[in-house]
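Researcher: Here's the sequence for the chain we discussed earlier.
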Amino acid sequence: MDTLIVTGGEISRNFVKKHLKYSKYDIIIAVDKGLEILDILNIKPNYIVGDFDSIDRNVLKKYEKTNINIIKLNPEKDLTDTHSAINLAIEIKSENITILGAIGTRLDHTIANIHTLKIATDKNVNIKIVNETNEITLIEHNVKLYKDKKYKYISLIPLTTVVENVTLKGLKYPLENRTLYIGDSLGISNEQLQEQAEIQLGKGILILIKSKD
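Model: Thanks. This is the structure I predict for it:
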């Protein structure tokens, strides 16, 4: 099952509209202020999640009158709204999760959203954050990358303290059994030269960021 989470970071209606034109989802989860962009586009979510501290109250009231499942969270909670939405997506047996609106002016939320990708990967669920210029995933094992013309750059940043035995094939700047450490910028702004590239690693987790510019 493919699930879309729309949360409350920086997001444009044109981007969401275009994304949904080319991507189909079985379930849509609106997170707090993320509901506003869906409302503008006349797209009804299956679930609405949040403490609702940032959403326009008139928009929320509109959906409170429907049969859509609304999950209201306590503002004084241990998890972010987006974290709770990911947990929900996992509970309903999502196999693939895409998050829009997870990157924004609140840098703390952006970093937390990237870290919460680990929740889904622990459950063997494919998960990614997408905005107008980036796609972000986590890598914990060897993967093959197929060239995507939308993205010019590929960056690899350690999420864990150490990532051992990193080997990169088919990229402009290859590596052979290199150990990367948290705080290391070696993996920034690589480029895929071949139609199929490969990232190999031993122990550790990498953040993979594909960027347009």
